[in-house]
Every structure is written in structure tokens, then in C-alpha cells.
Write a structure and sequence with these properties.
The chain is an alpha+beta fold and 231 residues long. It is built from 7 helices and 7 strands, in the order H-H-E-H-E-E-H-E-E-H-H-H-E-E. Strand 6 and strand 7 form a beta hairpin. Helix 4 runs antiparallel to helix 7.
Length: 231
């Protein structure tokens, strides 16, 4: 007899659909990125290269969108990391996936922090979603400050924007969703970013919370547990 928390037939059908759509699209996007990489290596025309770089970024963003669908479907990235990566490089990887990447500034970063291989790709994805959100909901001439420190056996990352802020009730709702992933529905897909962050955080027992930052803006904190780090 199925338990109350077991997924319904409709949820299973939806996640299966998302899984297959994501995998099919990923294969095409990977081919597109490979093609663009070849063009970048052989075409010296500066004006044309500008267009190629823009297409390359769009393809990378499409790949992240496909991977987000895969996360909602309960799947894991086909890209496998076999070696740990420094947190500094993880942060750079996440920033490179943000269109307005120049506004993402790094403050104090503990360069001794190293992320275990199985958590690297998911952490890049999670941080890229948070960077994107911080840049989108703050003035275009403002910066988003990122810092990371070791606290005991954990790491704490802080992503702070200078946007308009969020009301108390909405903040409470968002933090609840970050701590408790929702079932996959049409509404979930419309607000895919926060649901993806929630699921990726749960997968690695990370904690993501939002809180007011100063007189305006929002700070997102990401706590990495000891088992996500090379100690």
C-alpha cells in the first residue's frame, strides 16, 4: 500500500516526461557547443567571433536549463567529475554561466576550500541560479558580492545583492520552499530556479537561506557540510 508521501501516477508521468525531454535536448545542445568551440578556434574575424561567443553563452544557458529539467525529474547530470575542485574554481564556473557575469564580484574567498568531486557540478548549477537571481533583481549598475569562509568543518558562502528586497511573508515562503522541495507541477516549472536550488541543496545536505541585507537587498547564504568538502 502506497504511503501518503509516495508520488502519484501523474507526478511519475510528469517526471518521466521531463527526464526524456531533458536528455534529448542535452544531446543536441552538446553538439551545438562542440560546433561553436570549433568555430572559435578557426575563425579570426573579431565581429563574427562576438556573435559566436554570444551563441556559445546561449548554448551554455540552454544546457543549464536542460539540467534543471533533469533535476526536477530526479535525475543527475551526465557530466561526471572525477577529481575535487577548489571552491574558487567552482565560483568562477558558476559566474561564467551568468549573462551579466561582470556584475558578480568576489570578495573574501577562502582559497583553501576544496569541493569533493560528486558535489562540484551540482554546486556550480546551484550557485549559477543564485547569481542569476541576484543580478536579475538588482539595479543593472549595481554589483553582486560573493564571499566564502570556512566555519569549523563547514563552508559558508554569502551572495549579497542591492535590489529592492523582499517582504517578510514572501521571504518566509521562499525559505520554506528552499528547505522543502515541492512536487513537480506546472507552477514548479514556472518558478524553476528556486525549485532546482532546493533539490540540489537537499541532494548534498546543503542549506540555503535568504535574509535581508542591510537597508535593502537580499543575502543568500549557502552552507556546505563537511562531507561536501575535502578536509
Amino acid at each position: 500500500m502506497a504511503g501518503a508521501s509516495d508520488p502519484s501516477a501523474g507526478e511519475i508521468e510528469t517526471t518521466n516526461m521531463l527526464f526524456h525531454l531533458s536528455r534529448r535536448s542535452q544531446a543536441m545542445v552538446d553538439r551545438l557547443i562542440s560546433c561553436l568551440d570549433r568555430m572559435e578556434q578557426v575563425d579570426p574575424d573579431a565581429d563574427r567571433m562576438k556573435d559566436v561567443f554570444e551563441l556559445d553563452f546561449l548554448a551554455i544557458r540552454m544546457r543549464r536549463n536542460d539540467e534543471s529539467l533533469l533535476v526536477l525529474a530526479g535525475g543527475e547530470s551526465a557530466r561526471i567529475r572525477r577529481e575535487p575542485v577548489t571552491l574558487v574554481d567552482v565560483l568562477h564556473g558558476a559566474r561564467s554561466e551568468v549573462e551579466d557575469f561582470r556584475r558578480i564580484e568576489f570578495g573574501v574567498i577562502d582559497e583553501s576550500l576544496v569541493v569533493v568531486a560528486p558535489a562540484v557540478n551540482d554546486l556550480v548549477h546551484l550557485l549559477a541560479e543564485l547569481f542569476d537571481n541576484a543580478a536579475a533583481f538588482s539595479p543593472p549598475d549595481s554589483t553582486v558580492l560573493v564571499e566564502a569562509r570556512r566555519v569549523a568543518d563547514r563552508a559558508v558562502l554569502l551572495i549579497e545583492d542591492r535590489g529592492i528586497g523582499i517582504g517578510t511573508e514572501r521571504l518566509r515562503e521562499l525559505n520554506h520552499r528552499l528547505a522543502h522541495p515541492s512536487p513537480v507541477t506546472a507552477a514548479t516549472c514556472r518558478q524553476m530556479g528556486i525549485e532546482v536550488v532546493s533539490r540540489l541543496a537537499q541532494r548534498h545536505e546543503m542549506r540555503v537561506e535568504l535574509e535581508p541585507a542591510g537597508t535593502r537587498g537580499i543575502a543568500a547564504s549557502v552552507v556546505l557540510p563537511a562531507h561536501a568538502l575535502v578536509n
